[in-house]
Amino acid sequence: MSMKKIKYSVLDLAIVSQGTTLKDTFDHSVALAQAAEEAGYTRFWLAEHHNSVAIGSSATSILIGKIAEETKTIRVGSGGIMLPNHSPLIIAEQFGTLGILYPNRIDLGLGRAPGTDQLTAQAIRSDFFQAAQSFPLEIEKIQRYFSTENANAKVRATLAEGVEVPLYILGSSTDSAHLAAKKGLPYAFASHFATTHLMNALQIYHQEFQPSDVLEKPYTMAGVNIIIADTNEEAERISTSLYKMIIGLLTGNRGFMQPPVDMTDDLRELSQNPSVQQMLKYSFIGSKETVKRQVQQFIKDTQVDELIAVTNIYDGHDRIKSYQLFAEIMKELND
After folding, report:
1. Which of 62, 215, 213 is nearest to 205 (CA)?
2. 193 by DSSP, 3-state: which?
3. Domain range holding 160?
4. SS3 304
5. Beta-bridge mates of residue 106
6. Which domain CATH number covers 54?
7. In Å, how far from its chain's centre is CA 260?
8. Degrees (nearest 5) of the Cα angle 315, 243, 171?
9. Which tens digits make up the pLDDT trace of 199-226?
10. Number of domain units in the chain
C-alpha cells in the first residue's frame, strides 16, 4: 500500500483512571509495553508531565528504567524530557546510566515546554523561562556530555560519554522544526494535541534539514490519537473518556480519567466544540476498517516515517486491544 514501511510506536502518559491506584497504572504501563513489544512496535515513549492527578509519568527517567527492565527488545525513551525543567548534566547522567543498563534501547526525546502550568514550572525551576529560551544551547550541552571528546573537560558526565542514546527533538510549533533541521536530528511532532502547525512544521523541517553525524536525511514522527474496538459504536463509547478528559483540560476541570458512557447529545455537542475539534483533529476512532482508512490518508498527507500512537482509554484491557489492532493495521499497510 504505502511506498515505504512506516514504523509505529507508543506514547504513554501513564494515565490514571478513576478507581485505580498509581501502582495499578505503572503495572498497566509495563503490561502495555510488553504487549507492544510482542506486536512489533518500535518504541515505547513516556511523556514528562507535572501537577496532574491523571498523569503518572512525572519521574520519567525512573519509569523508563522500569519499562526497559520488564521488556527485552523494544526501544524505551522519553517523549519527551522537558529539558528546561532540568540540568543537562543530570539528564546526561540519567540517560547515560539507562543506556549502559539497556544498551541500544534507550531514546532521549527532548522538548521545550514545561509539561505543566506556569506556577508549577516556577516551582520546578525558578529560572524556567530563561532556560526555555536557551533550549538550543541546552541541547548542545547534552550532546557534548555524550561525546567522547568531553573526556578532557573540567565538567563531565562520565556515565554518558560514548554511550549510544539517540536524541530526538520534540515540538508542537514551527520553532522546533527549524531547530531539528539545523541540528540534523530526528523530529517528532505532537500532533495528537497540537494540530495547527503540523504540515507547516514538517515542510520547514524537510526544506531546512542539514545532514549530521547521526542522520543523513530527514526523519519525521507524528503523534496521533488512536482508539480501535470491534465496532465503530464500541470505539465511540470508549472514546467518551478521552472527550471528557479533553473538555476537562480546556475548562480547567482536571481529574482522573472517567469511565466511558454511552455518547449523549450533550457530550456530542461538547465534542463538536471548535477547541475540542482542533485539539483532536488527528484522532482516529472506530473499527479496524474505519481507522485503517483514516491512518492511510494521514500517512499519505504527511509522508511521515513513523506514527506514535496515543491511546488514552479508561480500561487497560481495551487499551491493549486497541494497540494490538493498530499494530495489525500498520502491518497490513506496510505489506
Report:
1. 215
2. coil
3. 7-233+282-334
4. coil
5. 76
6. 3.20.20.30
7. 23
8. 95
9. 999 999 999 999 999 999 999 999 999 9
10. 1
